[in-house]
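Lecture notes, unit on protein representations.

Consider one protein chain, 219 amino acids long.
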Amino acid sequence: MEKYIEILEKCPLFEGVKREDLLRMLSCLGARVASFDKRYTIFAEGRPLRAIGIVLSGSVQVERVDIYGNRSILTKVHPTELFGEAFACAGVEAMPVSIVASEPCEIMLINCDHILHTCSNNCGFHQQLIYNLMKDLARKTLQIHQKLEVTSKKTTRDKLMEYLMIMAKKNGSNSFDIPYDRQELADYLEVDRSGLSAEISKLRQEGVLESRKKRFVLL
């Protein structure tokens, strides 16, 4: 576990926790690390979820697939970030989404009950973890509202521009990288890939933006 300390120190769940206390805390929480290949389904839709995941390397995506096989990406999760906490804390018996490795990754898994309930050792850090978990859940709620702002737009062009403006504001620059390739971006925006590519080409020709792979510049 020691090799992950620097990553875990930046994790929202362990905010305010001293480095010397982290290893003891992880032992008390029963934390374990698992590795997954690209496109491996870590948590499947329709199954119960009791664990919270922390990305240590690589990345994962929270995805939803409709009955016609159309994929929608809700969010991508990067190193130091949490996933699955809302479903684990709620004790859902059937996940409405799947969590999939978008590239080879290492994930730390912690049973949610070990965070929410004081252990037999009566460790004093549980209140701090619960506070941090609530803050993270509130932040994730804001992210959901942000996605709704994007996908509620009526046209592919409007969805794309809304998303790019949000990313520009987030990065504090009109030049930035997005976390998605073209197919993933289409799935996040919930639009057809060919239509998205056509709109990006039009916006380039109109001098609205420049783009190359995951790099965008708003002009």
